[in-house]
């Protein structure tokens, strides 16, 4: 099975739907590398759709945790005294849940159990990547960890695929110095949502980018 890896969605539900049309569950694993929520207009629908996709295609899907899922998890479990989630889009996300009459706590167990990474012998996929000089890369709350890192990536003996840091030109970028792809193309900024298709051995097939749907972003 090949891999179809989707970058940061950030509540851009209608854009996400369009990109998912390019997934073939008979021949591809779907891997989403986190940050389903916040920023865009439809975080509840995006979470619900992802949850339902995984229920329907348990053997073909991997949803990873992003830093925004980690913030949401802490807030819903009462472990966010500094209100970090509120400052990073959580206030609007909770209003969306209220407007949609969707209880976010339905999904808290699923969010808590999202893995931090997926790998095989040739590919390593995470939200923000393994930094070249990371002190504690496996700590989900560390600034240079798998969920928050913005430092240069370590060159592994595997291809890394990450998101987290938006590419404002809307073009996914291969970084030869670290043998890594960044596929966050700023969907919530009104640019586009990107997926990359690769073989299970890391061989590149293609990238697919879908322009952000106007319904997903305010004032677009």
From TrEMBL:
<dbReference type="GO" id="GO:0008803">
    <property type="term" value="F:bis(5'-nucleosyl)-tetraphosphatase (symmetrical) activity"/>
</dbReference>
<dbReference type="InterPro" id="IPR004843">
    <property type="entry name" value="Calcineurin-like_PHP"/>
</dbReference>
<dbReference type="Pfam" id="PF00149">
    <property type="entry name" value="Metallophos"/>
</dbReference>
<feature type="domain" description="Calcineurin-like phosphoesterase">
    <location>
        <begin position="3"/>
        <end position="172"/>
    </location>
</feature>
<dbReference type="GO" id="GO:0110154">
    <property type="term" value="P:RNA decapping"/>
</dbReference>
<dbReference type="InterPro" id="IPR050126">
    <property type="entry name" value="Ap4A_hydrolase"/>
</dbReference>
<keyword id="KW-0378">Hydrolase</keyword>
<dbReference type="GO" id="GO:0004722">
    <property type="term" value="F:protein serine/threonine phosphatase activity"/>
</dbReference>
<protein>
    <submittedName>
        <fullName>Serine/threonine-protein phosphatase 1</fullName>
        <ecNumber>3.1.3.16</ecNumber>
    </submittedName>
</protein>
<dbReference type="InterPro" id="IPR029052">
    <property type="entry name" value="Metallo-depent_PP-like"/>
</dbReference>
<dbReference type="GO" id="GO:0005737">
    <property type="term" value="C:cytoplasm"/>
</dbReference>
<dbReference type="InterPro" id="IPR006186">
    <property type="entry name" value="Ser/Thr-sp_prot-phosphatase"/>
</dbReference>
